[in-house]
Amino acid sequence: MTGVYVCSCFGITEQQVKEHADAGACTPRQIASASKAGTDCGSCVRRIQALLGRGSCPRRDLADQGEPALSAAVPGPSASASASVPAAASVSGLSALREAA
Q1: What is the DSSP letter of 12?
Q2: What is the helix (H) or strand (E) element at residue 5, kind and residue range?
Q3: Taking a C-beta distance cutoff of 8 angstroms, is the pair 7, 37 a contact?
């Protein structure tokens, strides 16, 4: 897949972030759960925030209520079977995600 890279650590492009957002990811943390973007060095979190914007998200209410906000992972090379943030993610990346949420 070609495109402008947002996350160099995991090779995630703007297009992939937009696809995850179209699938229901409304926050950088949800993008991280779907693609690992933002979980290593954290330098891409602000760019992910900019791509997501500050508009309304139809699934944010579900997430706020503790319901699953994502129905399925976006197909592609970045989608993993577990779609969870890796346990070995760096502290700086996770700190940036906490600040962005």
Answers
A1: E
A2: strand 5-7
A3: yes
Please report the sign of the dihedral spanned by the C-alpha atoms of residue 42, residue 11, residue 90, residue 21.
positive
pLDDT of residue 79: 44
pLDDT at site 29? 94
> Which candidate, 60, 25, 31, places its Cα nearest to that of 45?
31
Could you tell me the two tokens for 82?
């577990």
Whole-angstrom Cα distance, residue 50 to residue 66?
25
Output DSSP code: residue 13: E
Give the pLDDT means over successive 10-residue stretches in the chain (101 positions): 87 95 91 95 95 72 62 48 45 61 59
Does the predicted model carry a pTM greater than 0.85? no
Tokens linked to 19: 């696809």
